[in-house]
Amino acid sequence: MIFRFKFKQLGRSRFIGVILIAVLFAGWETMSRLSIVDANYFPPVSAIGMVLYKLSVSFEIIGHLLTTLKRVTLGFLLGASIGYSLGFFCGYLPRIYSFLELSIEFLRPMPSIALIPVGILFLGLGDKLNVAIIGWACCWPVFINTMDGVRSTDSILMNTARTFGLNRMQTVRKVIVPYSLPFVFTGLRVSLGIAVAVVVITEMVASGSGLGFFIISTSVSFRVSEMYAGIIVIGVFGYLLNRMFLAAHRYILKWHIGFLCLKP
Amino acid sequence: MKIESLNAVSRFSRQFESFFFFILLTLTAEGVSRSGLVSELYFPPVSKSITTFFDLTISGVLSGEVLHTFSRMACGYFLAVCTMVPFGIILGISRRAYNLFDPLIEFLRPLPPPAIIPVVMLFLGIGNSMKIFVIYFACSFPMLINAMDGARSVHPLLLDTGRSFGLNRRQLIRKVILPSASPQIMSGLRTSLPISLIVAILSEMIGSVNGIGHYILRMQRTFNIPEMYAGVIMLGIVGYCLNKVFLVLDNTLLIWHSGWKRSSN
User: Fold this and answer.
1) How many C-beta atoms lie closer than 10 Å to residue A145's C-beta?
2) What confidence tens digit (pLDDT) does each residue in A211-247 have?
3) Does the pLDDT of residue A7 top 70, yes or no?
4) With a CB-CB cutoff of 8 Å, which residues 163-202 of chain B face chain A?
5) Rounded CA gap, A182 and A184, in Å?
6) Model confidence at B55: pLDDT above 60
7) Top-level CATH class of B49-249?
8) For B111, which of A15, A94, A234 is closest by C-beta distance?
9) Which long-range contacts (CB under 8 A, 24 or more apart) does A44-51 make?
10) What is the pTM of this model?
């Protein structure tokens, strides 16, 4: 009777999805070991695990990981700061935005990847290229969200600030910046995802180091297990960055999340 | 804080301001290039890039490459729409299907689409199928997640109303869930459009013999710099046009939604 009860609960929880993943892994392992699929293309999962361990111990992949991490951090910070400043000015002083609107609307849809060859001309094939391209790709979501946040500052709040006699600087510091912060964080989260994708792209196309370069080079030299290991590392890397960002988001915007929960 | 002036003259002059600034920027770039401040090899005058652009487009070189890229992108994109949107709706409706597939989706989601390219290159070589598959994979996740969210967040009041009208499950899906989820689905389609463009260009840069991504990279490597800039300009125009076309489609198909949003605020 207890067994039957558990069985019914299985379909209702997400545990069955985990079972699906386990089944897929087991299927991969058996098919690879029995050579149903070509083991050159589909090394058994355990081999990938072993290779992952070997690589991490030999510091080969750790070096690439640190390079990628450095590029992502620098590029993200560059793009976010440019996007935030530009967005803030355009939101606070709509006159400036009316000048810049057409130029920005032309530059914004330009995919960052198309600018890689241009960047190679000016910046060579190194860290600077990566950081610049990631910065370009990251600044647009932050720009739009910041501008949106600053522009939509509640007029009640602005009037209250005026009633209290705050001057311009104080209004900006005490009213506009905190109010627009949730919007900015939405933009930051989007551009973090973009940064991770763009760093892999740039490393694949124009770099001699980093995780993107690692998986391309292992792929063309047919070190297939290493390639899969690298892909797993990239996935985990992106996941962990996202998690860290969410934790920072929850910490910094405690008040906003509480406010959202209180709303009827 | 500010009052948007509805006066037609001031609106026109505002648009004119930004156009004027854009022209100013272009002229500055031309001046910087011609005066030799930046090496003219790296930064040819804007006029040269634009004339090269028109030459290449009219002679069919650029347009041919864009056609290759665009056809691959369209294949991958529409494949993703046809498979992922129904799948996402099913996942949104059926609790059991959601429980079954959600951990797998959460497992695959943080993987950036470019990371998939080497694997696919192993299996499918560097032909069209590789690119279409990569574009398909890259587009899938935004569409899937948005379709799933849209189907899940149908207002329970609407569902109950449908049920009290005696609709069976299929009619409920067609008349209540699909229309209610369509703004969210459109949002997913709109998100995956630039992703498909980027992944298409990337897959061409890595392994291809035609297509505009490959063209730009090839021009850079052979130091045909004005041609390279012409390609970049073409890419910017393609991206801009895709955005505009999608906006028009969005407004036509979901015209009820924008009106409803405005009236409910």
Assistant:
1) 24
2) 889 888 888 888 777 888 888 888 888 889 988 998 9
3) no
4) 194, 197-198, 201-202
5) 5
6) yes
7) mainly alpha
8) A234
9) A47/A225, A48/A225, A48/A228, A48/A229, A48/A232, A50/A225, A51/A225, A51/A226, A51/A228, A51/A229
10) 0.82
Q: Which residues in chain B are contacts of A13 at CB distance < 8 A?
A: 99
Question: Of B204, B217, B213, which is closest to residue B238 (Cα–Cα)?
Answer: B213
Query: Are the Cβ atoms of B239 and A12 closer than 8 angstroms?
Result: no
Q: Are B180 and B155 in contact (CB under 8 A)?
A: yes
Domain residue spans of chain B: 49-249
Say which residue the tokens 């009052």 belong to.
B3
* Comparison of pLDDT for A161 and A12, the residue scoring more: A161
Mean of the per-residue pLDDT values of chain A: 83
CA A152 to chain centre: 26
Residues 6+ apart with CB under 8 A from B108: B141
Instruction: Look up the ipTM and state it.
Output: 0.79
Written as six digits, the tokens of B180 are: 């209610």
The answer to whether the CB of B241 falls within 8 A of the CB of B251 is no
pLDDT tens figures, A90-113: 888 888 888 888 888 888 888 888
